[in-house]
Write a sequence for this structure.
């Protein structure tokens, strides 16, 4: 991913996708670290915040705190990389691995992101999660289940038909399990 970032491919792909997605009203973006822009985003302004940036515990915690502040009442805060939740791990395991970027779920060969698991668990406790995708809804000063089951996933129109089987298989593999 670092190599790709150096040759600008992800940024060019983002701009390509925005152009072909035909989003009503257009789409704007800020190319900067959340460390640089977080303080400048308006409180309670955003209906959806999707977090998929840093994976280290302090970075995830900071991004979630920014997200909670800028989310509008009734809005949904969500993200991915929550392969397992804090309450599902053996006592003491997360505390011992919290500062690692990757770890393996005890008794399995499945990797997970301890920073995401720890920060999400600390701020929200057990939450709705489907195949690593998680969500909460802001309800005043509380965060409640967003009720976003992945019952129907439709691919954006700009994804070419020949790629649909690839995406559908990828999503089917990830979204077979769910837990709350
Ligand atoms: C796991 S990738 C996800 C990329 C994209 N959401 C996707 O699914 O293809 C994380 C991305 O967040 C960027 N990133 C990491 N820390 C960040 C930060 N503090 N602020 C903004 N972006 C960050 C990385 O450069 C990388 O491009």
């Amino acid at each position: 991913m670092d190599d790709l970032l150096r040759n600008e491919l992800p940024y060019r792909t983002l701009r390509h996708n925005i152009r072909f997605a035909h989003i009503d009203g257009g789409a704007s973006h800020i190319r900067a670290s959340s460390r640089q822009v977080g303080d400048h985003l308006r409180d309670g302004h955003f209906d959806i915040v999707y977090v998929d940036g840093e994976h280290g515990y302090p970075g995830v915690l900071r991004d979630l705190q920014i997200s909670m502040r800028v989310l509008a009442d009734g809005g949904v805060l969500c993200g991915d990389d929550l392969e397992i939740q804090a309450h599902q791990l053996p006592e003491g395991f997360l505390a011992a691995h919290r500062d690692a970027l990757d770890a393996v779920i005890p008794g399995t060969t499945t990797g997970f992101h301890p920073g995401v698991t720890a920060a999400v668990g600390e701020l929200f406790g057990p939450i709705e999660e489907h195949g690593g995708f998680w969500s909460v809804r802001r309800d005043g000063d509380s965060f409640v289940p967003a009720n976003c089951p992945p019952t129907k996933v439709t691919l954006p129109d700009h994804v070419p038909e020949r790629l649909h089987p690839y995406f559908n298989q990828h999503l089917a593999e990830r979204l077979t399990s769910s837990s709350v």
Remarks:
- Strands lie at 46-51, 71-79, 103-104, 111-112, 128-130, 133-139, 142-145, 178-179.
- Residues 5, 10, 33-35, 52-54, 59 surround S-adenosylmethionine (CB under 6 Å).
